[in-house]
Design a protein that fits this description.
26% of the residues lie in helices and 21% in strands. It is α+β, with helices and mostly antiparallel strands and 134 residues long. The strands form two sheets. A three-stranded antiparallel beta sheet has the order 3-5-4. Strands 1-2 form a two-stranded antiparallel sheet. It is elongated.
């Protein structure tokens, strides 16, 4: 959902998130007689919920682990500038490739806490993602 956080709130896959995260779906379902952006995207019963706009996806993080030591492998005080950048980029690409070697996975490595911690996250690919953000 475009980098937004969300929570599943029902066994049927109902997701709660922020308004700006589903704005495309709100626009998709809004008509002249029904302006969802003014009346909210809230329903009293599951059967009243509207599906997400076509092409919407939810990617669920399946695992996340600390990879700081692996990212810093081969990095020393002797490296600076572009050499340091290349070493970090090579290590990051290797971690992503290893993670994505698993079936149906998309992976990324990101910095957290101002770069103090590097973490790798694995998510289900589109084939396993939810097609509906109801």
């Amino acid at each position: 959902m475009g980098g937004c956080s969300a929570s599943f709130v029902s066994p049927q896959g109902l997701v709660a998130t922020n308004h700006h995260c589903v704005f495309e779906s709100i626009q998709y379902h809004s008509k002249e007689a029904r302006t969802i952006s003014q009346t909210a995207f809230w329903r009293r019963a599951l059967g009243e919920e509207l599906p997400a706009a076509p092409g919407s996806r939810i990617h669920v993080i399946e695992d996340m682990r600390d990879v700081t030591a692996e990212i810093l492998k081969g990095v020393s005080d002797k490296l600076n500038g572009f050499a340091r950048y290349e070493r970090l980029a090579t290590n990051r690409k290797a971690l992503i490739a290893a993670c994505e070697g698993q079936p149906n996975r998309r992976c990324d490595v990101g910095a957290y806490y101002g770069g103090v911690l590097m973490a790798a996250a694995g998510v289900a690919t589109e084939e396993e993602s939810c097609d509906d953000e109801r």
